[in-house]
Amino acid sequence: MSETKVTAVDQTFPVKKTTASRLQSVNFSDLRFGDVFSDHMFELIYENNSWQKGKIIPYGPVNIMPSANILHYGQGAFEGMKAFTMENGEINVFRIHDHYNRFNDSCKRLNIPSIPEETFTQAILQLVDLDREWVPSDKYKSLYLRPFVFATEEFLGLKTSTTYRFYIITGPVGNYYREGINPVKLTTMPDYVRAVKGGVGNAKVPGNYAASLYPAHVAMQQGYSQVLWLDAIERKYVEEVGAMNIFFVIDGKVSTSPLTGTILPGVTRRSVLELCKLWGLPAEERMISIDELFAAYREGRLTEAFGSGTAAVISPVGVIHHKGEVITLDTEKMGPVAERLYATITGIHHGTEEDPAGWCNII
């Protein structure tokens, strides 16, 4: 077991505090996901070939010109992270280093200048510390952190921008899905694809998500929570779900799609695989066809399906639909593997389970 990092937060960045906190207007007992925002945000500007000095300011509008690159060509990237109130009252920002690495990889793919890790980390810690009263204490709630960067140069030709803005905004959230932690229903959409090798499927960038909105809309109209994406070439290998990576328990082994450049390298996905290894639970990354999945279900060898992600943590899957055929697993509750993973990961979040590998950054 690695030792948990306890961080003394330096006041690296100047702070302009809000004069009108909205904290008292928030109903923390009835939080949804992504519609409430904390009092402050972090701002960092790139110009003259370097990142300037960042600052923390009150949450509010961001002014950009209508000719800004991001509005026309989508040169931007973002990340999704969480902070939790621990049992002893301290705040845990989960796996900052891994989220920074993924964010940096996304920026590199879109030719956006790298933000120094020390700047990224210190900005997160100082902002969360300032708004620590916004971190919910409930086990099923958290403070969601959204770092994002976008190109701001005023130019309508297609080229790499020379100016950027980086922000971090935060907000208290409840469960991601309306089902809460109950099983969700998925459907494939063979007429649509999410990503191809060599594209940006493994980067957290706006276009990936914008292109998935229409198929997701169709899926929801049909009574499903999300799309289960298949590969773009053969349209038969399972890749990921719209907002999470996907796992199956087949013959007692936890299986998930490999990182071949078309799916997002989820931080929670990584946590799941590392916990399975720690527990001695067989786990593998391999190509899984939708036909194999249905065959395993018919033969009684598929016993669980669940998704993983920062937003959803662990989300059980109760139904999978594909071309008129349906897999029906437990539609009422999590299976034993998903339940153990959910209990352990949320326990690590809140300090009731031991940190296995220095995942927690305590402030």
From TrEMBL:
Positions of post-translational N6-(pyridoxal phosphate)lysine modification: 204
Q: In which pathway does it act?
A: Amino-acid biosynthesis; L-isoleucine biosynthesis; L-isoleucine from 2-oxobutanoate: step 4/4; Amino-acid biosynthesis; L-leucine biosynthesis; L-leucine from 3-methyl-2-oxobutanoate: step 4/4; Amino-acid biosynthesis; L-valine biosynthesis; L-valine from pyruvate: step 4/4
| Taxonomy, superkingdom | Bacteria
Q: Which GO terms describe its molecular function?
A: L-isoleucine-2-oxoglutarate transaminase activity; L-leucine-2-oxoglutarate transaminase activity; L-valine-2-oxoglutarate transaminase activity
Q: Alphabetically, which GO biological process terms does the record hold?
A: isoleucine biosynthetic process; L-leucine biosynthetic process; L-valine biosynthetic process
What task does this protein carry out?
Acts on leucine, isoleucine and valine.
Protein's recorded name: Branched-chain-amino-acid aminotransferase
Species per Swiss-Prot/TrEMBL record: Cyclonatronum proteinivorum
